Amino acid sequence: MKGKILALAVLGGLLAGCATLQGKMTGNDRDAHGCIGSAGYSYSFLRGECVQPFEVAQARLDDPDNDTLAIYLLFSGDKKLVEVFGANLPENTILQQNPSGYASKDGKIRLVRGVKGLKLVK
Asked: Which of 14, 21, 51, 67 falls between 20 and 30 A from 94, CA-CA?
């Protein structure tokens, strides 16, 4: 009897060891565009591909809401558009050039030229 119980315990242990865990794998967090967020990638609507904003940005600004965060600017080739990447900004934030700098279509997000350079205004 003890032999059967021992055999069942060993068999149960073997079967439990074969079970697969269905946890989320690191680096397997692709967004709707196929970009891996955990690796720092975001989708650039100007470039039409996944980019690491901190690598490709032509300018970096402090976030006006939180100076521990950065805002990254990616300009189009003709400088008429600028894509803005930031933790507190919606995806696909593209600003169009105007006489005072750049602004979103609804005017809620602006990039203005100041004495010390560009400044983001929300």
From this structure: 67
